[in-house]
Structure to design on (496 residues):
């Protein structure tokens, strides 16, 4: 009996409920992880079922959940039917090889090979911490790419003949119309991978060579972080907490798509949601369920827009409102009106800097005196990739690099660059780090906003004694956590 067969002998439900998990083979026996408080009778039953000597390892609750997730992840994705051990690109390729070479796969009665391939793609994406899966048909092949740490990486280029069955199967899983190929469609898939709930947002779009599919993977455990877990420096964290303690006004989070704005907003809401407040959110779409908070999904086709819904929820006596995004003048006006009644509002805008958010509101048509009276703060953020600790390579910083990142020229200092290894899939990076700049609207900034000054003048005052995005990112380069190239890719270099 192999380790995989031993793992399958104990069903997932038995392992989860009884606190036992097969962790591998050792010296002809089976390593059995035992959660604290496990029933001794269950251990006896497991030994009888496995029929081999057992070596016990005691695990705390967190260790047990991690081992359970890893051991049963594959069978949880595919209901236990996938035989392939999806442990890397070679195995994904073997799943493609299992698909029969028929003229039209949709004519076949057995779609199990396609199901196994999709299960393999999703499992591998979760394992590699990918945020998105892109399936794109081209003239000669089909491109499958993962977005990992904000950067797309190609993992498969199978034959274009797989495009139709793959797309159709994903549509079935997301409850979309498989016959409609002329218009974009959006849907959702809910999965469980070893006890972890994964939501997959599916979007299809017609293209020249067929429909392309994008799947966004949403793992609640990765999103619900405390403020102190976001990677803010002490100065920024302290000032953000002070902003959230204010009883009214608008606080904005700004940055490009995929910069972590939603995670930051959810972390802020967790601070405000103390059980004594009526916290309500308007989102498009709702990405993660939040305990004790009323969340409303926008539905533009039936008129459920941000502006219309914001007006409606004001009659539900909210203490705190989070608006997913301020996109137009109508939404901005209602948000500012609500904030002026003495309650806090959190929202996002898409701009390149904190000062740029003020200009965006002006361009929408909000009067400067309204912005000055109601705005409390704007937090701009980015995510830079973290160098892989297993393979990063030191190099002596040049004079230009020292000057750029605030290191004295006479001081010898090593910076680091990526190399690539098996641990980071040859990218040189593993994980991401948060970079922030916080523009606080104090008395001087209020006057500058009323005077309708430029972004440069606003920044000159607001960041005279505090970090800009680029300055905030310096700490990671100096500490050897990221590379010079990565910071320059994400943050605008400061002049002078």
């Amino acid at each position: 009996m192999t380790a995989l067969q031993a793992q399958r002998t104990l069903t997932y439900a038995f392992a989860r409920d009884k606190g036992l998990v097969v962790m591998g083979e050792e010296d002809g026996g089976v390593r059995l992880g035992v959660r604290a408080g496990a029933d001794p009778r269950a251990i006896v039953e497991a030994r009888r079922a496995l029929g081999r000597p057992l070596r016990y390892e005691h695990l705390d609750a967190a260790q047990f959940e991690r081992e359970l997730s890893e051991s049963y992840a594959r069978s949880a994705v595919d209901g236990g039917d996938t035989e392939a051990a999806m442990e890397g690109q070679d195995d994904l390729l073997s799943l493609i090889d299992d698909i029969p070479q028929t003229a039209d796969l949709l004519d076949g009665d057995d779609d199990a090979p396609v199901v196994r391939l999709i299960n393999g793609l999703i499992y591998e994406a979760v394992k590699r911490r990918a945020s998105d899966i892109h399936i794109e048909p081209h003239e000669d092949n089909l491109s499958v790419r993962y977005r990992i740490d904000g950067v797309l990486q190609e993992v498969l280029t199978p034959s274009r003949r797989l495009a139709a069955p793959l797309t159709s199967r994903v549509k079935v899983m997301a409850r979309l119309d498989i016959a409609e190929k002329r218009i974009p469609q959006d849907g959702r898939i809910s999965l469980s991978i070893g006890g972890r709930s994964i939501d997959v947002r599916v979007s299809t779009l017609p293209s020249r060579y067929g429909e392309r599919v994008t799947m966004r993977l949403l793992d609640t455990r990765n999103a619900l972080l405390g403020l102190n877990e976001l990677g803010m420096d002490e100065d920024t964290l302290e000032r953000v907490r002070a902003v959230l303690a204010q009883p009214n006004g608008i606080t904005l989070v700004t940055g490009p798509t995929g910069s972590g704005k939603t995670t930051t907003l959810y972390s802020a809401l967790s601070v405000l949601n103390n059980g004594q407040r009526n916290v309500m959110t308007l989102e498009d779409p709702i990405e993660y369920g939040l305990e004790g908070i009323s969340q409303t999904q926008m539905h533009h086709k039936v008129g459920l827009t941000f502006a219309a819904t914001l007006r409606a929820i004001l009659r539900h006596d909210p203490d705190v409102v989070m608006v997913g995004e301020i996109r137009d003048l109508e939404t901005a006006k209602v948000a500012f009106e609500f904030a002026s009644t003495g309650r806090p509002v959190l929202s996002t805008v898409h701009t390149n800097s904190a000062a740029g958010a003020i200009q965006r509101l002006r361009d929408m048509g909000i009067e400067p005196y309204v912005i000055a009276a109601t705005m409390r703060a704007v937090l701009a953020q980015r995510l830079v990739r973290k160098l892989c600790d297993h393979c990063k390579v030191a190099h002596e910083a040049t004079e230009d690099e020292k000057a750029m990142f605030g290191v004295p020229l006479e001081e010898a200092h090593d910076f680091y660059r990526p190399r690539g290894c098996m641990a980071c899939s040859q990218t040189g990076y593993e994980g991401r780090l948060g970079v922030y700049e916080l523009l606080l609207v104090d008395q001087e900034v209020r006057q500058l906003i009323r005077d309708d000054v430029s972004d440069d003048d606003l920044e000159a005052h607001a960041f005279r004694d505090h970090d800009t995005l680029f300055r905030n990112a310096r700490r990671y380069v100096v500490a050897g956590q990221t590379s010079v190239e990565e910071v320059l890719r994400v943050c605008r270099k400061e002049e002078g």
In short: The first helix runs from residue 3 to 9. Confidence is low (pLDDT under 50) at residues 73-90, 101-110. Residues 59 and 243 are 41 Å apart (CA to CA). The two ends are 67 Å apart (CA to CA).
